[in-house]
């Protein structure tokens, strides 16, 4: 069955019927020559490079041995979502993140969902992402994941065409929002006439919402909280985003060496002396936050930070221990979490998933490896996965051996035909597969800007949209 296309009712595009919400954009596109589009693309690349919007690929070195800084390719053709569709999506995302936060509070307190037998206890309590140091810790507003990046795909599955599915929950240090914001600025700069003919919902206020969310998460006794962004430093692949968000919010960007603990509080070093810190928007994984508690060789965090956190004298966003909720082996249980904690039916469906730790699931997966996508439960960035339909026989057999040896490390899902969107590639305008990462903010209330980061697989036929695997990004318009 052909993939659902966001803009046209049929593929190939020649004389295809355009969907109503793309009609005005399609008129503009028909007036553009390939040369004009190429010129716009080159201008965008020049501006992005000048601004320094790059990311580093770990293990990818230039000839001189230095790290390779790359631009994430930007595509000029936006992904357009009608408002009624977005409203349904937004409601489902808010429901899902609310349930995930309830789950996180529960497993570090009463563990009711484990006692009810809905999720096997050993799958949570024995998971490397479960932090025993968080048991009994009270966090402001009961919120653990303040910034969630929920990966959503659209696919034809069964009889329903173009159904939305949640592919993945990112609750630790989700990245990509700076590209969402910069993509919009770029489109408004290159094609201002499009924004005069379309009522596109704004996204520029995201930094204001983020700062409001972080301030809402401060310790209760603090009336005017000091917020900082904690980065691992300039060699991190997402350093541009860390610096960008700090600048947009008007707060300090700090590294671990800028922070210290004294008398039960956290301070940052400034030219005017120590200043107390109330909220840390951390872009560092749990393991590196406090060398006294987690990895003793970490130089990225702040010694003693966990004691201050447990005492309720500093807020860390996202909370320590959120990783258990975005572990891919926990993902299949999210619909049951929604029913257990909220008493509601899920508004957004999961992708059907086989847990290879289960014997029956493993048997099925091994028998159908050439049809399935197999992922590591702790994997990210498109690494460590098998896409059965495009893998060679040798790759499948190699993966089979690994699966048989470590089944608990993997899940499997059907190979969904992700929706496509017209994309300007070397051969012209052609369909390419996409996903969507909306960013959900959770402080005293759940908020989000209309849209998110649309990622696009630039290789023909590829389903892997990750930037580390050659994917690009698009502006996302909610009309």
TrEMBL record:
Cited InterPro entries: ATP-dep_Glu-Cys_Ligase-2, CP_ATPgrasp_2, UCP005522
Lineage top rank: taxon: Bacteria
Domain Circularly permuted ATP-grasp type: 78-457
SUPFAM superfamilies assigned: Glutathione synthetase ATP-binding domain-like
Protein name: Uncharacterized conserved protein, circularly permuted ATPgrasp superfamily
Classification of source organism: Bacteria, Pseudomonadati, Pseudomonadota, Betaproteobacteria, Burkholderiales
